[in-house]
Amino acid sequence: MSRRRILLQGSVGLAGLGTAFSAGTIQANSPKLATQEIAQATLRGRYSNKVVLITGATSGIGMVTAKEFALEGAKVFFCGRRENLGAKVEAEIRNTGGEATYMRADVRKSEDIKAFVDACVAKYGRLDIAFNNAGVDFPPHPIAETPIAEFDDLMNTNARGVFLGMKYEIPYLIKGGGGTIINTASIGGHHAFSNIVGYGASKAAIIHMTKTAAQEYTLQNIRINAIAPGAIDTAMLERVQRDWKVTKEQLVAPYPIKRTGKPQEVAAVVLWLASPEASYVSGMRFDIDGGGLG
């Protein structure tokens, strides 16, 4: 395999860095879905009175998904480490008539995530949907040249962050009678790419944790799924292009669709997974990559 091919494959995997609701009183994974309630879920405002918690929503996929949930009537409680961006996103949602609250939290720290989840329930009274989306990337390195600190930060942010989120979200979902969790993985979590061992390992861990958690809690009316984005048009993708020294055209060359994805296209999948229409879906990984690994 040529060096160019290896670089392009790796950049496609790293690009994935860019990478839950019920209508009325019915739970999202109830086996008895009312036709009327499913129909209502297709209307704007389908998440009215639902509480959605999102990590990593100060930019990119998380930010767009937070705005989409708010447009659908949800109360959105979100975190990120960049306070200036958090305040900006909260103001933008509120200025469009939505309800959102930003709280600074570092998903690497158990005390931060526990306080974040507790604060969400204290403010809005319950938790219905959790989107564990926070993640980081680093420039590419072969394994022997990968800095240990970078590997540790990838695992602590991407994998441990999702574990901590589920650990503190699940008890509230059980208390409320059920709900849904969506975790952000990546196509790099199930397809090996050169030079991103820490990133790929962290995303593979998310996929495994998602499947394990679904087996443990689906009978308690909690559906848990993962999304695996490919090359999504975000600021993180721009960093990938700079780090790998590739153009956007080169980046999407392996994709049959021949373009990058939009954050809105990822958000649409998240909102569907959180809805009653996905009531029989749990423990699954959804690739959002334009057929790139098809």
Automatic annotation (TrEMBL):
Kindly list the GO molecular function terms attached to this UniProt entry: glucose 1-dehydrogenase [NAD(P)+] activity
Where does the source fall among the domains of life?
Answer: Bacteria
Query: Which PROSITE patterns does its entry note?
Result: ADH_SHORT (PS00061)
Q: Where are the transmembrane segments?
A: none
- What's this protein's name? Glucose 1-dehydrogenase
Q: Which UniProt keywords apply?
A: Oxidoreductase, Signal
**EC top class, as a word:** oxidoreductase
